[in-house]
Amino acid sequence: MKPISSIAKGIAPSATVAVDTLAKQMKADGIDVIGFGAGEPDFPTPDSIKVAAIKAISDNQTRYTPAAGIVPLRNAICQWMKREYGVDYQPSQICVSSGAKHNVFIALQAICNPGDEVILPAPYWVTYEESIKMTGGVPVVINTTEQTRFKVTPEMLEQVITPKTKALILTNPSNPTGMLYSKQELEAIAQVVLKHDLYVISDEIYDKLVYVGEFTCFATLGEEIKQRTITINGASKSFAMTGWRIGFAAANEEISKAMANYLSHSTGNPCSVSQYAALEAYSTQEDLLTKMQLAYARRRKYFLERIKKLKDVSCLEPDGAFYIFMNIKGLLGRTIQGVTINSSADFAQALLEKGLVAVVPGEAFGAPGYVRWSYATSMENIREGLDRLEKFLSE
Ligand SMILES: Cc1ncc(COP(=O)(O)O)c(C=O)c1O
């Protein structure tokens, strides 16, 4: 048989999905594992959103829609962007798709030619690197460290920019580190972007989950920046709607049209019922956010207090999102419960097998020596999970 596509052969499965699937399977098999792998709100989708979806079904909103989403939803998203950040978009500049993950993929398809370089600051969300590769693009990874709070600086960018550089991917606040860029930091990056005429894919899906500092939407940094920015956002995290699969991108007309064309030939359109649910979310759901923000803030605080008391592991205090990015370098070379820990992957595996706690190894985010814990899970789980970690480390 002829070989399958060489691009496809080079694509790794999502490590976060793999950890979550494994933890769920272990649970289904009766093993009492606690999963910290998934970046998924543990809150149910609010009732009014579910009711809007049920109404959409009753009203027979069950047919194909425009590829980039129904106009009322794109309108609601424009109004939401205006209300939240004072930035103006027309509905034709909004592409609703089947989750922000798909928006990232389509955005890269829209701007990259094969061989184009895309700058990806590490630690990065698992999907970016593979999405760049799926376009035939070349990920150019910048390894940031705790010294700059895992943030990329203009100097770091200047060092890797070549004539082939097409775009920069920014995640703010970050998955997996939870770090937030200040307005000044973003302005400094924006200058480099303009100097080298780059596109920016600004993934702002955690914009509403900020505990320290103030979030700045990258597209608000001036008209020239707005023209070059593809803002990615979606309903999954802010409205506890992961399974509904609704994300959106806001971009200039040319890019949004190209993205819509891709959508028209791939998914066709995002699920019609989910779009009506999202319409309700973007029009009305402020209460849920406040409730979730408070819960995440409490969990974050508790997590940090517990980690401070542990030996050999540490973490920077995250500003936003719902992740703790734990430095486990102090454990490397040690034997814990009969297992020699030579990498964060070893650590994650041993913690899962011996401690019955699932976390994602930093290798998945281009950052060996770390593991990611999601605190989008109940306080009871967090308490028990950290008790288990403590026990695992002490034996
Ligand atoms: C940074 C980032 N962007 C995008 C997504 C994808 O979100 P969605 O569920 O809308 O595909 C995630 C989900 O984990 C994420 O962490």
Characterise this structure.
α4 (71-85) packs parallel to α12 (272-284). The chain has two domains: 6-44 and 287-394, Alpha-Beta Complex (Aspartate Aminotransferase, domain 1), CATH 3.90.1150; 48-285, Aspartate Aminotransferase, domain 2. Helices cover 44% and strands 15% of the residues. It has helices at residues 6-9, 15-28, 47-58, 71-85, 100-111, 126-134, 154-160, 183-195, 223-228, 235-238, 253-265, 272-284, 286-308, 344-355, 379-394, and strands at residues 34-35, 94-97, 117-122, 138-143, 165-171, 199-203, 229-234, 247-250, 314-315, 323-327, 335-336, 339-340, 357-358, 360-361, 370-374. The protein has a seven-stranded mixed sheet, with helices on both faces. Strands 9-10-15-14 form a four-stranded antiparallel sheet. Strands 1-13 form a two-stranded parallel sheet. It is globular, with a radius of gyration of 21 Å. It has 395 residues and is of the alpha/beta class. The longest helix has 23 residues, at 286-308. Bound molecules: pyridoxal-5'-phosphate (PLP).
